Structures are given as structure tokens and as C-alpha cells.
Amino acid sequence: MKSLFKISMFLCFFVLSSCYESLDFNQVDDYVSKPVFTSAFTYFTLVPAQFFDSNGTQKNSISDITNFYGFQNTYVKDNLVKLDFSAEIKNEFDREVTIQVDFLNNSDIVVYSFTPIIVEAGDLNLIFLEEIEVASHPAILNTTKVNILTTIENTGTQMDPNDISELVFKSSVTLFIESGI
């Protein structure tokens, strides 16, 4: 009983001595959540042999289309304000390489083309960054596929298909979201 009295007095003390100010619940209306999400985007390694067809003829470009599900989430689609595309490229080839990244919609129509990435021969540490404001490019939210076209410089001499040099491409995308409560 004595401990119940002490607990009651303790609680009364905090209740009576606590600060009091009228609460403004309207402040919640002005709150904006700004999460940032970064994810790996695409990665590939190419060797000279991949630029040759089954007849041994060299092609100067390789293209690959993959599905992209990043904007299928309605929360992301409705609240995305900016995205950053970044890439790290290592070019061990003896010729310049150009990489073109395009966002496509369901009909394979380009909704956004990134600045072509030109990688000089022997450049082992190229860093690329492109920032996209969604307000300036709203069609980007219709992206469902990504096309990456890799083109090697035509120097007039054929590459050695047995060469073990590599072109390594690593990329990521960072999404900047702003949403009210």
C-alpha cells in the first residue's frame, strides 16, 4: 500500500509539473518525407570475342534490352522528383567505346536518352553521372525497359577475338522522393 502511494505521488508530480503548451496538429500537414533510395541498375562485362558473329565477322555494336520495374510502384511514380544515374566504366580495349542508355516505354519508344558515354581507349576509371528532374521530363515515369547500346570505334583493323581485355560497366540509380503525409 505504501508503494502504491509512492507511485501515485510520483505520477501526480509529473502530471502537475510537466510543461503545457497547446498542441498544433496542423504541423503534420506541412511535413514532407524525403527518402532517397539507391539501387544497382545494370552490370556487364564484354570481351572482344562478343563483338564477333558466328561467321567470324566483327560487329561494331552490341545492344541489349532489359525490363525495368522501378516505376511500377505507384508511391514511387507519384512522388519521384529526381533520379541520378551513375556509372563506373573500365575500358581495357585498344579503341574508344560509346555507351548509349535509353529508357523505353511498353511500345519500345524512347522516353529518355542519357548523354552518350564516351570512354577513351585504356580509360580504366571513368565515372559518369546524369541527374534527371522529373518535372522537366515527366515521360520518364513511363519507363518499362532499358536499352543499352555499346559501340566500339571502327579503326579499320579488326579486334583480336582471343584478346582477354575487358570492358566493364557498373551502374546504379538513386531515386529522390518527396511526399506529404
Q: What form results from the Cα inertia axes?
A: elongated
Residue runs with pLDDT of under 50 for 5 or more positions? none
Question: Beta-sheet strand percentage?
Answer: 35-45%
Number of helices, where a helix is a run of at least 4 consecutive DSSP H or I residues: 2
Average pLDDT across residues?
89
Order of helices and strands: HEEEHEEEEEEEE
Ends distance = 47 Å
Number of strands: 11
**Structural class category:** mainly beta
Instruction: Provide the helix percentage.
Output: 10-25%
Radius of gyration: 27 Å
How is the biggest beta sheet arranged? Answer: 5 strands, antiparallel
Give me some keywords for this one.
181 residues, mainly beta, five-stranded antiparallel β-sheet, four-stranded antiparallel β-sheet, 2 helices, 12% helix
Characterize the structure shown.
Helices cover 12% and strands 42% of the residues. A hairpin with a 5-residue loop joins strand 5 (97-104) and strand 6 (110-113). With 181 residues, it is mainly beta. The relative contact order is 0.30. It has helices spanning 2-17, 74-79; strands at residues 32-33, 36-46, 61-67, 80-91, 97-104, 110-113, 117-119, 126-133, 145-152, 167-177, 179-180. It contains two helices and eleven strands.
Which SSEs are present, and which pair or pack?
Layout: H1 2-17, E1 32-33, E2 36-46, E3 61-67, H2 74-79, E4 80-91, E5 97-104, E6 110-113, E7 117-119, E8 126-133, E9 145-152, E10 167-177, E11 179-180
Antiparallel strand pairs: 1-11, 2-10, 3-9, 4-8, 4-10, 5-6, 5-7, 5-9
